[in-house]
Design a protein that fits this description.
Blueprint (H helix, E strand, L loop, with lengths): L31 E14 L2 E12 L5 E3 H6 L8 H18 L5 H16 L1
Helix pairs in contact: 2-3
């Protein structure tokens, strides 16, 4: 069972990384391996108790072991700083470009203004 659906590509983790990129909840590294054993957790959904096997991961960098529930619920990874900021800028530019008119001088002027604003932030 996956708690994070890859169709939600805009979801961000509390540390600023993309939610569907599996990263260590302790150090933030993307060098994570999936373990064969699973953590069995009892969840109550709508008054019905269910046993769910959550995927376990191990960080290759810091050796931290965590399951998918911990990754979604409480990520203690440090923020990434400039690389996260660059990704956010790229995401906002891509979103803005989709909303611009197809062609013409308006588009060029809007794009120039957009990049001028992004360089300052």
């Amino acid at each position: 069972m996956s708690l994070v659906d890859k169709t939600f590509t805009d979801e961000k983790c509390t540390c600023g990384r993309r939610m569907y990129d599996i990263h260590c909840t302790d150090c933030g590294s993307l060098q994570v391996e999936k373990r064969t054993e699973r953590d069995v957790v009892d969840l109550e959904v709508g008054g019905v108790k269910q046993r769910i096997g959550l995927v376990k991961y191990r960080c290759r960098r810091c050796k931290w072991i965590f399951n998918e529930g911990e990754r979604v619920a409480r990520c203690n990874a440090p923020t990434m700083g400039l690389s996260v900021k660059a990704q956010r800028v790229a995401d906002s530019v891509a979103t803005t470009l989709k909303t611009l008119p197809e062609e013409g001088p308006e588009r060029k002027a809007l794009i120039a203004d957009l990049f001028k604003d992004k360089r300052r932030s």
